[in-house]
Specification:
single chain, alpha/beta, 7-stranded mixed sheet
């Protein structure tokens, strides 16, 4: 399972706000296979993600690949007052940044997407209503992508949503054998343009 929640630090706090895009770019240079873009998501993409996630009645939301927290904050704004958001990232720097968002509904967790079920249970959650993923399926080994998609399906409630925003359609090929046919929309006002895929767990 992933490591424990990253504590807040003065250094992490200093990188929020205006410095976040620069930090995002530096982390992309250090870990290009783990990060799906060179800059954070646009507000247009965030709105499209929120529409696909349908957070109105979501009690537990998981974000995989929280980056510098722009999408994390958008998800919190779209959630109910009593919802909980578990933001999981393999990048320690990003997890530190997100842990400084001042919202009691948020849990920032350093860990792997393959361990999503164990991470949920470690925080007292049986399953999730929504999983939103920005991790780049196109750059990871195929078997790792399969493992992540199966872990997401296993942790979702029946009727739960899996939303993935990606530059490529590889996640579609990985997810359809597990979830069945999903839906897709394209957001052009983002660098790079992103496809927003959505699946609903039926069984």
């Amino acid at each position: 399972m992933g490591q424990s929640v990253i504590p807040k630090t003065d250094q992490a706090s200093s990188d929020t706000g205006k410095k976040a895009p620069f930090t995002f770019f530096l982390e992309f240079l250090r870990h290009p296979m783990e990060i799906g873009s060179v800059i954070p998501s646009s507000a247009f993409l965030e709105r499209r993600i929120l529409a696909a996630a349908d957070l109105e009645n979501a009690a537990v939301v998981v974000e995989l690949g929280c980056g510098t927290g722009g999408t994390t904050q958008a998800l919190l704004e779209g959630m109910t007052a009593d919802g909980r958001l578990l933001a999981v990232d393999v990048n320690e720097r990003f997890t530190q940044l997100v842990s400084n968002i001042p919202d009691s509904r948020l849990i920032a967790q350093l860990g792997s997407a393959t361990d999503i079920g164990q991470i949920l249970k470690a925080h007292g959650f049986e399953n999730a209503d929504v999983v939103v993923s920005g991790i780049p399926f196109s750059t990871m080994p195929w078997d790792l992508g399969e493992s992540i998609v199966k872990a997401i399906h296993a942790c979702l409630k029946p009727g739960g949503r899996f939303v993935a925003y990606q530059a490529s359609r590889r996640v579609q090929k990985l997810s359809e054998p597990v979830f069945g046919r999903g839906s897709e929309s394209l957001e052009l006002i983002n660098v790079p343009p992103m496809r927003v895929h959505r699946w609903i767990k039926t069984v």
